[in-house]
Amino acid sequence: MIATLYNRLAAEIERLSAPTLPTLARIVFAGVLLMYFWGSGTTKPGPGLFGVLSPSLGAYAQIFPRAMEAAGYDPGQLGLFHRLVVVAGTLAEFILPTLIILGLFTRLAAVGMIGFVVVQSATDIIGHGVPWGAWFDRLPDAVILDQRALWILLLLVLVAKGAGPLSADRMLGLR
Questions:
Q1: Where are the membrane-spanning stretches (predicted)?
Q2: Which of 1, 17, 23, 49 registers the highest number of CB atoms within 10 A of its CB?
């Protein structure tokens, strides 16, 4: 009797979560991470309309802290690879969150964001010396392991489930 009731309830929750979970994941992404990434992105472009193509000194220092220190904080001493990574990273901070919010190419954008978070985390640990933190330590606020694991889990929901019914993907007939 209890097992039957439980199974019915679980089936109903599963049925209702199919359309709502991905939409809620996008709303949570917007509320928790959108302005974080856009705010970070706004620190990187150089002056002018096409400033994103000529990144600021701060952009290089944020993304390649050790290389910039070795170059005397002169981005001109760094190569084309460094410039391309900084430009791509800056564009990614604006474009990928926007795609997720719109629900456009959501799975691809979420995979891109997962890659971005992994690279960001490696940069924070290796380049900026941010401690990893620890799991199972009763403290839920380690910047890297705790917080970023939750970010990636949220993004994995979008990879697995897509954008949900209220999305550009759905309007365009994309899966």
A1: 21-39, 80-101, 108-129, 149-168
A2: 23
Give dist(CA 162, CA 103) in Å, integer: 8
At 19, the amino acid letter reads: P
Q: What is the pLDDT of residues 64-83, one digit of tens each?
A: 999 999 999 999 999 999 99
| pLDDT above 80 for 175 | no
In whole angstroms, what is the distance from residue 167 CA to residue 101 CA?
A: 8
pLDDT band (50, 70, 90) for residue 45? very high
Listed in sequence order, the DSSP H helices in the chain are 2-29, 35-42, 57-63, 65-70, 80-102, 106-122, 149-161, 168-171
Residues sharing a CB contact under 8 Å with residue 59, sequence separation 6 or more, in sequence order:
43, 44, 45, 86, 89, 90
Distances (CA, A) of 70 to 45, 73, 92: 22, 7, 26
Measured CA to CA, the distance from residue 90 to residue 88 in angstroms comes to: 5
Hey, where are the domains in the chain?
20-171
Query: How many C-beta atoms lie closer than 10 Å to residue 108's C-beta?
Result: 13
